[in-house]
Amino acid sequence: MHSLVFIKQVPDAAQVRVDYETGTLIREGVPAIINPFDKHAIEAAVRIKNEFGGKVSVVCMGPPMAEDALKEAMAMGADNAYLLSDRIFAGSDTLATSYALWAGAQKIIQEEGPVDLFWAGKQAIDGDTAQTGPGIATRFNIPLITYVVDIKKVDPENKTIEVVRLVESGQEVMEAPMPCFLTVEEELNTLSYAPLPYLIRAAKTPVKLLNSSNTEIDASQCGLKNSPTKVKKAFTPPKRERGEMLEGDSLDAILNTLYEKITPVLKQMGKVQ
Amino acid sequence: MIKHDISKYKHIWVFVEHENGEVARVSFELLTKARELAKDLDCEVHAFTVGDKVEQFKDEVFKYGAKKFFIIEDPILKDYMTEPYRDSIVYLIEKYKPEVVLIGATTLGRDLAGTIATVLQTGLTADTTALDIDPKTKNLLMTRPTFGGNLMATIFCPDNRPQMSTSRPGVYKAIEEPVKGEVIKEKFEFDKAKYTKKILEKIIEEGEKVNLGFYDIIVSGGFGMGSKENMKFVQELADVLGGTWAASRKAVQAGWAPQTRQVGQTGQTVHPKIYIACGISGAIQHVAGMKSSDVIIAINKDPEAPIFELATYGIVGDVLEVLPKMTKMFKEKLGKA
């Protein structure tokens, strides 16, 4: 079983703050982390390797500092790590990003052999688009299963996998032939602690570099210029002002005040006359 | 990037999402919004879908102003499956060349839209909360939150068509404006051997199927509720107000509420008229999912809780004491006692 996990290095969203003076995000001092959903994809791939044998490759597109994310992925049990990094990728939207990752993956397949399972988190916590995974799967022309919450069965002999995915009305159990592409939810698994041998291997194994000179990537499909979507403007939403703390002699008095305050809204909704 | 001849594309298309014979409400919301955009573009609003039996939805889509309803019917499309849906929809779009394609940002819509846009080699803007037409260029301006709602970005797609967007449920109102529409049936030859994925079982969570976006009033319980049993206080208040109940991620992780009721970055985004946060401290991930609510009422015993920073009205107190009293009082005042 060979898994290839697509990961992204993102700023820790919980620590990003807004500078309301300038209307920008304050990113200084905010640690870069592996996109939390992607970590669950790495975990799932490593568990399947541990049960059925094989290996786990991981790839990240980004600036040189994204190497840290790949090192961490190896500490979680990935065997090979590839950094896809080139100036030509700068400003890529999801269509261009899925192209670059797909083209980079072709090179990884040449080096590491055919892949049975492709993985990614359901979305990245910075862009929140959930579009890159489906885009890559489409380019490979393989079955896509999004929002995976459970792996029920892996059958390496018949080359099938059975998973549970979330849908609007509940869940569905789905079987797909391998190779296929899975995007995963956090509920899929609990992350394990990196055992010492993984940590040692991560420290010793170099991250391999992929760019436009050692892959077949077509520069005319990458970067800002070749992305169909462009950003017209970015702005911070207006800050919500701290409202009114309701105080009174008794809880009854406070709740009475609250009721009076929200009566106009309740009227608008037709809940009171 | 291949630039398309954009002059060949016309009209706004709205995807009619359906499951178990029912149309998703977001499709009606988008049809309503599309009517507004169509005025600026001087074009028509059309609906489209694929499925096993979908002609039955025609009255509903015409009720919301779609002048044409493009459909492909085939038993292979009985249950939603990415690949046959993608291929048949791509066929419709390539044949009729709509200028704009709008899809609901549901689990189904987000699964589908990315694959369609990739095949069509066009731009797709995810999860938008505002759509406008640029008065000068007539391009669609698509505004969406990123960084968990901390930053908004307005995106456009100048050289490729269709301009595609998934839009969040609950952002636009669904308003009827019936027209006499026309159904246009198309045939698509599926290469059945190509679709190798199978649905083995569907687990419908009856009673727990909840799209929080439908509700004007949401009462939400957090870790401060203390136990699963105490969540009933949240539910009781929601019932009295004619709203629904929800939970924070911490409450869901503690097993006090199903994931389908989670509000926040990894749950659902809501913007009701009234959001009552009970025992919720206001972690940034939660706030990202509810801060656009019109009126936010926060009840928390910690006066320093970050939720008070954005609450319209704050009550410092023990939720277990406040909620039952509030339910009783509101019940009387609303004449439900």
Brief summary:
In chain A, helix 2 (67-75) runs antiparallel to helix 5.
Walk me through the structure.
Chain B: InterPro entries: DHS-like_NAD/FAD-binding_dom, ETF_a/b_N, ETF_a/FixB, ETF_alpha_N, ETF_asu_C, ETF_asu_C_CS, Rossmann-like_a/b/a_fold. The complex is a heterodimer of chains A (273) and B (337). Chain A is of the alpha/beta class. Chain A has six helices and 15 strands. Chain A has two domains: 2-226, Rossmann fold (3-Layer(aba) Sandwich), CATH 3.40.50.620; 241-273, no CATH class. In chain A, the strands form three sheets. A nine-stranded mixed sheet of chain A has the order 11-10-9-12-8-1-6-7-13, sandwiched between helices. A two-stranded antiparallel ribbon of chain A has the order 2-5. A two-stranded antiparallel sheet of chain A has the order 3-4. The model of chain A has no long low-confidence stretch (mean pLDDT 93). Chain B has eight helices and 18 strands. In chain B, strands 7-11-6-1-4-5-12 form a seven-stranded parallel sheet, with helices on both faces. Chain B has a five-stranded parallel sheet with strand order 15-14-16-17-18. In chain B, strands 8-9-10 form a three-stranded antiparallel sheet. Chain B is elongated.
- What is the C-alpha radius of gyration of chain B, as a whole number of Å? 22 Å
User: Any idea of the CATH topology of the largest domain in chain B?
Assistant: Rossmann fold
User: What oligomeric arrangement do these chains adopt?
Assistant: heterodimer
CATH architecture of the largest domain in chain A: 3-Layer(aba) Sandwich
Q: Main sheet of chain B?
A: 7 strands, parallel
How many individual helices of chain A?
6
Uncertain runs of chain B are none
Poorly predicted runs of chain A are none
Helix content of chain B: 25-40%
Distance from N terminus to C terminus of chain A (CA atoms, Å) equals 66 Å
Give the proportion of residues in helices of chain A.
Answer: 25-40%
Radius of gyration of chain A: 23 Å
Largest sheet of chain A: 9 strands, mixed
Going by helix content, strand content and strand pairing, the class of chain A is alpha/beta
Kindly report the average pLDDT value of chain A. Answer: 93
pLDDT averaged residue by residue of chain B: 93
